[in-house]
Amino acid sequence: MVDFGGWDMPVQYTGIIDEHCAVRNAVGLFDVSHMGEIELRGPEAAKLADFATTNAIAKLQTGQAHYSGLLYDHGGFVDDILVHKVADDHYFLCVNASNQDKDFEHIRSLNRFDATVENTGSRYTQLAVQGPKAKATLQKLTGVDLSAIKYYWFTDGEAAGTAARIAHTGYTGEDGFEIYVPPAEAERIWKLVMDAGSEFGIKPCGLGARNTLRLEAKMALYGHEIDASISPFEADLAWIVKLDKGDFNGRAALLKQKEAGIRRKLVGFEMRGRGIGRDGYEVFLDGAAAGWVTSGSPSPTLNKNIGLCYLPVEHAVPGKAIHIMIRNQPVEAVTVETPFYKRAK
Amino acid sequence: MYPDNFRYTKEHEWVHAQGDAASVGITDHAQSELGDIVYVDLPKIGSKVEAGKSLGSVESVKAVSDIYSPVSGEVTGINETLATAPEKLNTDPHGEAWLVKIKLSAPAEIDGLMTAADYQTYIGAEK
Known about the structure:
The structure holds two protein chains of two kinds. Helix content of chain A is 20%, strand content 34%.
């Protein structure tokens, strides 16, 4: 167990590769109750949500969710989040564990609307059921027709007789669901999901596999690909920024950045030499330090060593020969297209 | 699990000495904490090692860790099979997946290391 933002979290149960492969090939279950929840309510909850986040709240329908960013005035990330529209006057935000207090204060500081902001993390336990057999597993526990929930939509229903928010979302690049249940029911539901998935070989999965899965799918991790010093354009997340939706916190800085152009950008790489380019390692281009690795790991699915790094924008394209300084030795790598892994539809 | 004729370090290496010849490896607890091991870097035969100093490294899916030599001496052999089968460290860390052989320059160092019973108490307390 490791300390992760104050939570005792399992890094692995049966082994990262084993758990990773279970999610890619069948189904895995993650206890992600450390994730934070913040709820915006009131007649102007939508206005607050739209001002506080980068994606277009107006495009969300009731029962729909999207990925978005919370930015500082200067355009750097406070956090990356999921926004769920529960009702016209109710938005449910899923935020990173270690950022929840900071996010809460940040949103409150922007609240000049007729809306309330509530930190409701202690009311929910989140379990993620992920993998091609996730639906068949979870369906055994609920009367909600999971096939009717489209990707990045959710339903408030029940699971194992308990009120549950069932979202067709995930952080693995695989099909799957994230369910929000009362903490008192979490252990019981965990066991029921494990039983339901046993015929498919379900595995309990820890933070280690969560990291390798999200990396293959090129999903950002706060503190690695994104932080206060990084803008969505640099992080290759322009798709979550809707500059034409009206004003939002950080918009002015992003407009300026768009005009001036960014200087560095996130790009994927594959190791060619022996070694793993890990978080914080320097990246060299033509013999000179040019950037840094944000995440790196063996890819259990692809059987290669992969990673993400920041490079000057003109070089942040596939096919560039680079070197990664691994314990004072430059090791050959090459920039590649991302995501590294995309599931068959 | 932890052989009585081995001695152990706080950094989770083991050493098995017979006279001035010793084998060194990492413990089962270490491999379990590291998880799936993907690379093992070992010193060259003939190189000098010093107790408490880095001997090489093991890298798992999640992290890279230094291996600290439990003893001082000269490397007389390295386990070549780990270059192509590093995963053996996950299955037989006290046996087939030994790391290096060392000719001890100060055999008395062994006496300062933990016994199997001490080590088990130590890892029990560390949890």
